[in-house]
Amino acid sequence: MDFLDKYGIVVKNQELLLTALTHSSYANENNCESYERLEFLGDAVLELSTSEYFYLYYKGDEGKMTKTRASYVCEEALNEYSKTIGLDKLIRYGNGVQAGLPSIVADCFESVLAVIFLEHGYSVAKKYALDIIRPYVESGRKFIEDYKTYLQEILQSQQKTLEYVIVSEDGPQNDKTYVVECLVDGLTLGKGVGHSKKEAEQNAAKDAISKMA
Fold first, then answer.
1. Do domains 2-139 and 147-212 have the same CATH topology?
2. In 55, 95, 126, 176, which residue has its Cα 20 to 30 A from 26's Cα atom?
3. Extents of the domains making up the chain
4. pLDDT tens, 113-132?
5. Taking a C-beta distance cutoff of 8 angstroms, is the pair 72, 49 a contact?
6. Active site residue 61
7. Helices marked H in the chain — which ranges?
8. CATH code for 147-212?
9. Looking at 75, 88, 110, 207, which residue is catalytic?
């Protein structure tokens, strides 16, 4: 596959690689496994790889390194990496699920990274991830910041409380839409919608920050 060939990686276990590109909607319809377990592993590999990179090459303190890393491993960033290398076009979806949702595409970037880790070990998986991510870092490209962390830091300095509340969930189990409200001192300040709770919370935090500004 091109998204591996261009980085000199060969995966012998093609069945596992196909699993890494299989959304739960397709898995449920075809009685096969989805990428979810692989994503769990790939997320850890990605976190360690990027943490090591920023520790070695970035001179900021812990807080700044955490924020910088979050920008390059957030959903928007992983979605763009996947589209740039062509991984997004190979994901298998079930009926009724919109192809190309950023949350799913981002998940598959991590699940593929897990496959590389299982076949070739940490060093190869790290190199693959950083070969893709490093050009964005070096060019100064900025992705969505971690709005939840940013908002929390603002409110902590003001000694205010912060809470996220799910106000609704709609859609089938494999393609839900969540609506989340961001409460500051018990009052609704922002609202966000997303195909995952995490995405909805980030959007709610972003909405709250924009209103505070």
1. no
2. 126
3. 2-139, 147-212
4. 999 999 999 999 999 999 99
5. no
6. no
7. 2-5, 14-20, 24-30, 36-57, 62-73, 75-85, 102-120, 122-139, 147-157, 197-212
8. 3.30.160.20
9. 110
- What is the token pair recorded at 185? 């001192």
10-63 pLDDT, tens digit per residue, is: 999 999 999 999 999 999 999 999 999 999 999 999 999 999 999 999 888 877
Neighbours of 121 (CB within 10 A): 10
Distance in angstroms (rounded) separating the CA atoms of residues 154 and 105: 31
| Annotated catalytic residue 43 | yes
Please report the pLDDT score of residue 213 as a whole number.
53
Of 119-128, 149-158, 179-188, the one with minimum mean pLDDT is 149-158
User: What's CA 194's distance to the chain center, in Å?
Assistant: 13
2-139: CATH architecture: Orthogonal Bundle (1.10)
H helices present in 121-182, as ranges: 122-139, 147-157
Query: Catalytic pick from 43, 80, 145, 201?
Result: 43
Contact 162, 151 (CB under 8 A): yes
Cα–Cα dist 11/13, whole Å: 6
Q: How far apart are CA 112 and CA 126, in angstroms?
A: 12
Query: How does DSSP classify residue 98?
Result: P
Short-list 100, 103, 118, CA closest to 17: 118
